[in-house]
Write a structure and sequence with these properties.
By secondary structure, the protein is mainly α. The chain has eight helices and no strands. The radius of gyration is 27 Å and the shape is globular. InterPro entries: BaxI_1-like.
């Protein structure tokens, strides 16, 4: 009888031991997965960082709007020009992984100040700039939903050709804006050609948004470090702000803004 019971007890002991080992292995596996989700990129974390950068733009923009002078002056235009150059420099150096977070936060603060200055100048000329700004923000939300859906269903595919086309288009757009500022600013203000330029700029902004969405998906799939989330969040911020100004320019050239009476 003892010989018959001992094998059963032995099997029961080993079964319990294997069960405990399996549970411990699953527990460690779950802990590893949890740690990975805390240290690697997620879509939710990218969204939170992007929202945080937008809040920085909003707060610093409010301060700049209410503290800046109403009239156009050389000093005001100089400030806008200097801030724009700083922003351009930060965009170039944002590839530095070590300073992703600092660069993104600093850029957002400068973007907000510049945003406030420009809106103040527009408010000096136009009486309904806030209403038009709300229309521009709603348009951005609609465009984001459309581009996100097209990208999610692979209707818009982002590849190397897309990125090359985007780089060339941005360079062409930059040259056009420089020429517009130096030579043709007044002649293009309400012209059909100016409207085409702004429409092309909005198209490029939508294409840039698709690239940002693809980059976001890539860093999440590759489980890259969370530091990369700041770069993607900053990219979304740059794209949305660029999109906002293109829509504002289109509305100005279509005559939606009402000039103030003297």
């Amino acid at each position: 009888m003892l010989n018959e019971k001992n094998p059963k007890r032995s099997n029961l002991f080993f079964n319990n031991l294997l069960k405990e080992i399996s549970e411990e292995k699953n527990k460690k596996s779950n802990e590893i997965i949890y740690l990975k989700t805390k240290t690697t990129c997620t879509h939710l974390s990218i969204f939170v960082k992007t929202l945080f950068l937008f809040l920085l733009v909003f707060v610093s923009g409010l301060f700049a709007f209410f503290l800046s002078p109403e009239t156009i002056s050389i000093s005001a235009m100089t400030k806008i020009g200097i801030l724009s150059l700083i922003q351009f420099f930060l965009i170039i150096i944002r590839c530095s992984k070590k300073y992703f977070r600092r660069i993104a936060i600093f850029y957002s603060l400068i973007e907000g100040v510049n945003f406030g200055f420009i809106l103040r100048l527009l408010n000096y000329h136009y009486s309904n700039i806030f209403f038009i700004s709300i229309i521009a923000l709603l348009s951005i939300c609609l465009l984001f939903i459309i581009i996100h859906s097209l990208h999610a269903y692979n209707i818009i595919e982002v590849n190397n050709k897309t990125r090359i086309f985007l780089s060339i288009s941005l360079f062409i757009l930059f040259i056009i804006y420089v020429l517009q500022i130096v030579f043709l600013s007044k002649s293009l203000e309400h012209s059909f050609l100016g409207l085409l330029i702004s429409g092309f700029g909005l198209f490029i902004a939508c294409l840039t948004l698709a690239v940002d969405l693809e980059d976001s998906r890539y860093i999440v799939q590759q489980r890259l470090s969370k530091e990369y989330e700041w770069r993607i969040a900053m990219g979304f911020l740059i794209t949305f702000v660029f999109m906002f100004w293109q829509i504002i320019q289109i509305l100005i050239r279509l005559g939606f803004l009402k000039e103030r009476e003297e």
